[in-house]
UniProtKB/TrEMBL annotation:
The keyword Lyase applies. InterPro entries: Methylgl_synth, Methylglyoxal_synth_AS, MGS-like_dom, MGS-like_dom_sf. Belongs to the methylglyoxal synthase family. This is Methylglyoxal synthase. Its EC number is 4.2.3.3. The keyword Lyase applies. GO terms for biological process: methylglyoxal biosynthetic process. Residues 1-140 form the MGS-like domain. It comes from Cohnella phaseoli. GO terms for cellular component: cytosol. PROSITE patterns: METHYLGLYOXAL_SYNTH, MGS. It comes from the Bacteria.
């Protein structure tokens, strides 16, 4: 079981909901986290249970970033809207930077999201279990 964050900008929320519907059979076996409205919309349209954080502009991106910084997130699906300026762009860049620092796979569009979900479905994320097992300070 891995920890997956689901984030979508306003004009990408329908895309994220459709993605969650399409891959519900894969996502149901993992711990899901999302920013506020995205998580609500996913739960309204699927049987998935999602731990919701605050809305992205209100700090949700940073809450997820805190889990990334502690290496407690395994995959982030962040469907970004590249054609719309975001008032919390520094938070978004900080989250993506933390993913790079911790080596967390992140998809910023549905095409990459599908590739990562297919990899998850095949079992290609087993390496994350080793990361957790040998993380300093944790008993394994």
């Amino acid at each position: 079981m891995i920890d997956i964050a689901l984030i979508a900008h306003d004009r990408k929320k329908d895309e994220m909901v459709n993605f969650a519907i399409a891959y519900e059979s894969v996502l149901k076996d993992h711990r899901l986290y999302a920013t506020g409205t995205t998580g609500t919309r996913i739960m309204e349209n699927t049987s998935l249970k999602v731990h919701r954080f605050m809305s992205g502009p209100l700090g949700g991106d940073q809450q997820i970033g805190a889990l990334v910084a502690e290496n407690k997130m395994d995959l982030i699906l962040f469907f970004r809207d590249p054609l719309m300026a975001q008032p919390h762009e520094p938070d978004i860049i900080a989250l993506l930077r933390l993913c790079d620092v911790q080596g967390i796979p992140v998809a910023t569009n549905v095409a990459t999201g599908e590739l990562l979900i297919k990899a998850l479905e095949r079992g290609d994320f087993a390496w994350r279990e080793l990361v957790h097992k040998y993380k300093p300070g944790l008993e394994g």
